[in-house]
């Protein structure tokens, strides 16, 4: 098809051995990209089927969008990165949750079911951000079942119970982001005190401001326009990069990065699965940084349409051998949010 490039070998190790694995899960991006390309959702998901490398276990798409379509997806079709802005929003509250529930019930009453998936995702993003210590799994399951069955009375009853649990967003949840002193302590325990810190991708959800307040040397590296949001990512006409403190140095693109001496650390948070050429990417990373921390979405539900690849401990071990690096996988506090943290040093 005219929209895709074809990959006959693994972009991580070069092996041509692979097996088909599960399709990506349905989400907002599948809905909107299918409309944009005028392809049926199921057909698009099937065309973008995931395969798993028989050598290094990288999951990747044998057909992936050409650059010009990726540019349009990240900068025109869906130009604002929602998860980044959620950290700065004040949307995690009881009133917002109640409004979402009322809207959901209205959709069910009026039988406008085509609007249901998006509203359910909005509600789930709030529910999933509640501290798991406060919200029992049974209540959450009962609530989800009532939505699936469109039982308005039960939706109202369970939502009232859930609303009482909404206070502060849980660590590493959508409305909290990846700003975490606990994660920082883990990283510095392994690699020593960080004097120079960077992040690539989203400028809003990590630890840049924390290190900047400590007067550390800080850098934000904007992602490539065909890999990630940023070029037109804005809210209330303010671009995401403008929210950063002016002391944080901004670098337009990883390809522009050439430090004279290596910096201590770069955070690669929910970015690597967008990268089409990981070898080239990590050559640049390790040329400029002594270590990196990687946050990745787990692949047990499949790799979704907006991600090119899915990574595992086995895949990253292969990568580390290639670059003569160590891999630490012992930080597990992101696991309950459906993500993994890896430290390479």
Task: Break the fold down into its secondary structure elements and pairings.
Blueprint: E1 4-6, E2 18-20, H1 28-37, H2 41-47, E3 50-53, E4 59-61, E5 63-65, H3 67-77, H4 82-88, H5 94-109, H6 116-127, H7 137-148, H8 152-163, H9 181-191, E6 196-201, H10 208-213, E7 217-222, E8 234-235, E9 238-239, E10 249-251, E11 263-269, H11 278-288, E12 289-297, E13 309-310, H12 313-323, E14 327-328, E15 339-344
Parallel strand pairs: 6-7, 6-11, 7-10, 11-12
Antiparallel strand pairs: 1-5, 2-3, 3-4, 4-13, 8-9, 12-15, 14-15
Helix pairs in contact: 5-6, 5-8, 7-8
Explain what you see.
The chain has three domains: 4-81, no CATH class; 93-163; 181-344, 3-Layer(aba) Sandwich (Rossmann fold). The chain is built from twelve helices and 15 strands. The chain has helices at residues 28-37, 41-47, 67-77, 82-88, 94-109, 116-127, 137-148, 152-163, 181-191, 208-213, 278-288, 313-323; strands at residues 4-6, 18-20, 50-53, 59-61, 63-65, 196-201, 217-222, 234-235, 238-239, 249-251, 263-269, 289-297, 309-310, 327-328, 339-344. It has 345 residues and is of the alpha/beta class. The strands form four sheets. Strands 10-7-6-11-12-15-14 form a seven-stranded mixed sheet. Helix 5 packs antiparallel against helix 6 (116-127) and helix 5 packs antiparallel against helix 8 (152-163). 37% of the residues are buried. Strand 3 and strand 4 (59-61) form a beta hairpin.
């Amino acid at each position: 098809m005219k929209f895709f490039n074809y990959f006959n070998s693994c972009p991580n190790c070069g092996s041509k051995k692979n097996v088909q694995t599960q399709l990506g899960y349905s989400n907002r991006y599948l809905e909107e990209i299918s409309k944009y390309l005028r392809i049926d959702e199921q057909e698009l998901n099937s065309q973008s089927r995931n395969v798993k490398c028989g050598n290094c276990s990288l999951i990747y798409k044998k057909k992936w969008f050409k650059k010009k379509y990726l540019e349009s997806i990240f900068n025109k079709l869906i130009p604002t990165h929602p998860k980044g802005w959620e950290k700065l929003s004040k949307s995690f509250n009881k009133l917002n949750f109640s409004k979402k529930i009322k809207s959901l019930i209205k959709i069910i009453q009026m039988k406008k079911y085509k609007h249901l998936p998006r509203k359910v995702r909005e509600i789930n993003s709030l529910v999933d951000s509640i501290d798991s210590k406060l919200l029992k799994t049974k209540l959450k399951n009962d609530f989800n079942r009532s939505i699936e069955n469109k039982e308005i009375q039960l939706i109202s009853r369970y939502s009232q119970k859930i609303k009482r649990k909404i206070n502060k967003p849980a660590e590493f949840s959508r409305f909290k982001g990846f700003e975490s002193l606990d994660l920082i302590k883990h990283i510095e325990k392994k690699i020593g005190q960080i004097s120079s810190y960077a992040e690539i991708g989203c400028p809003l959800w990590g630890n840049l401001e924390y290190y900047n307040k400590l007067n550390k040397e800080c850098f934000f590296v904007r992602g490539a326009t065909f890999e990630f949001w940023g070029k037109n990512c804005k809210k209330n006409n303010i671009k995401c990069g403008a929210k950063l403190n002016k002391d944080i140095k901004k670098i337009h693109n990883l390809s522009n990065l050439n430090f004279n001496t290596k910096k201590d650390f770069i955070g690669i948070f929910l970015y690597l699965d967008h990268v089409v050429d990981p070898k080239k990417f990590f050559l640049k990373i390790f040329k400029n940084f002594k270590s990196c921390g990687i946050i990745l979405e787990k692949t047990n539900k499949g790799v979704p349409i907006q991600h090119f690849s899915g990574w595992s401990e086995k895949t990253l071990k292969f990568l580390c051998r290639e670059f003569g690096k160590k891999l630490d996988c012992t930080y597990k506090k992101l696991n309950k949010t459906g993500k993994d943290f890896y430290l390479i040093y």
